[in-house]
Every structure is written in C-alpha cells, then in structure tokens.
Known about the structure:
alpha/beta; Rossmann fold; N-(1-d-carboxylethyl)-l-norvaline Dehydrogenase, domain 2; 2 domains; eight-stranded mixed β-sheet; two-stranded antiparallel sheet
Amino acid sequence: MKKVAILGAGSWAIGLGSVLWDNGHYIKMWEIDKNRAEELSKKKVLYDKLPDVKIPENNFEISSDLEYVVKDVDYIVVVVPSVYFRGTIQLLKNFYKNKIPIISATKGLENKTFKFMTQIIEEVIEESFGRTVALSGPTHAEEVVKRMPTTIVSASKNIKLAKEVQKLFSNKYFRVYSHYDELGVQLSGAVKNVIAIAAGIGDGLGLGDNAKAALITRGLVEMERLGKVLGAQSETITGLAGIGDLIVTCTSKHSRNRYLGEMLGKGKKLKDILDEMTMVAEGVPTCEAIYNYAKKLELDLPIVVEVYNILFKDKSPNKALEDLMNRELKQEGFYL
C-alpha cells in the first residue's frame, strides 16, 4: 500500500482518488476550503459534481491541512484548475521533502508565462526537477468513477518514473500508457480544450456532423503546428493524449468546454455561462494564452483565433464561422 496525497477535491480528483483506492492505496485529499473539506469528510459525497458517487469511508481522508496531507506520502497528485496551480505549488513548497514524485493531472497553460504545469512545479520547487509526471488523456471523471474502461498517458522526462506511475494507477478498467514526451502530452491536453469550445459552438449553431469532423481534423492540425514550434513529438499529438482526448472532449456530453461552446453558439454571453457552471472550463484562459503566444510567433491558428474573438471580442459565432469558411483556399497539409 502506498500513501498518495491528492491536492484538489473536484470531480477529477475524486475520480483519480477512486482509481488509486481501488488499487489498494491510502488516499489523503486536500481541499483548501476548511468548511468544504469538513463537509466532504463527513458526508463523503461531492454533491455539486458527482452526487451519485460515494467517496470511500476507509483509507480516504479529506482535510484542509496541507502539511498533514503531504506528510509521509509516497506520491503527490495535483488536480487543481490551472489558474490556481502556481499558488498551490507555492503552498506545497513549504512542506515538500525527499524529492517525492509530483504528478500533475491539470490540463492547461499559465496565461502570462505560457508554461505548462510540470514546468511550474520545477520552477517553484527546484528539488522536484526530474521528479514530475504529466497524467493526461481522454478521461471524464463521470465515467471513471463508474469503473468504465478508460485509458490515459503517464509522461515524464524521467521514463522510469513515468512507468512507475503507470503501474501505480493501472487496473482492470484504467489502463495507463507510459511516455517520455512530458511537454507534448501537456500541450495536447491544453489545446484540445480550445478546439472543444469551437466544437460546442458548432453544436449550438446546429452545424451537423460534417462540420464536427472537419473541426476536429483541422483542430488537430493547429495542435500539430503549435507542437512543432514547442518541440512536442508528432506521435504524441496523434496518440491518446492528443487526438484521443480531442475526440472525447469535442463530442462528449460530459465535456465542460464543449458545453460552454454550445451555450455560446446558442447566443448566451460568456460571463453568464461561467456564472452558471459549477466546474472550470480550462479552455477559456488557455485560449487567451495560446492566442497571445501564436500572435508573437505569427503562427497560423485560425480556429484558435476565432474562438478567441468570440470569447474576448464578443464576435458573433456566425460571423466567426463565415470568416473561417471564406479564408484563402489552400492545399491540405499539416504545415500549409
């Protein structure tokens, strides 16, 4: 039995916690809000996100005391929204010891720095260098907690550690693949959320299956373009963490980013949609980060640009669609 600290207590944190608990490990979960932590610890149900899922009674603690949660554990899993990620790691720094592996299960980018989550970990906690892992893939918590077949990727510059984490999480319904492309796996997990917003906008406009297929395919092209600039491996983009996650996020009823896009396509305003949502749509801040980065490099990412215009420039979804369809005609090719 290993002791695993999970920082964050949302639906995906509960999902990963349930996998590890099923594998016979002891879970110590951190929720920053003391009242919410006490409620979760007492009632063992995440009512606002997973109301039908019971959190295990034994070997599954929930606390707001970060020092206690990370004390004497074998692994630390960070599952907080990207906008809170750096702040969480700065708190963790005060109690980090013994080069314990830190696993990031957060999908996104830091807006101002354009850094991925494992890069933030290594920047804030220098002792963690070579001890970080990115865990990402086509995974919805709503299905994982029901023990439905799921696959994911454990990626690290330290391939030995990636394989160690692979074994930690793998079981009969949760299959983990190891990978060395830590950056590419995180890039894929971030960009796909922006494309999913576009897919949702198409759903809201009632565009149909032809448009959805085109959007996913051309979205993959934009992921490839950005990945090439950043040094991601092509096979990562076309693997589980890339196209696999792209497909599920663009098509699933569980996808919060697709849902946000659908509401935009139906004419709702971004602020109103975000106010109504109980979960964070990572694609919104990620879109702004990618847009600004691509603009600096003069990188052609037309879907990202139009999603940005809809989110932050109040552009009409119909006008964005028209501008996408009426661009200069081109020969198909990943880098054309």
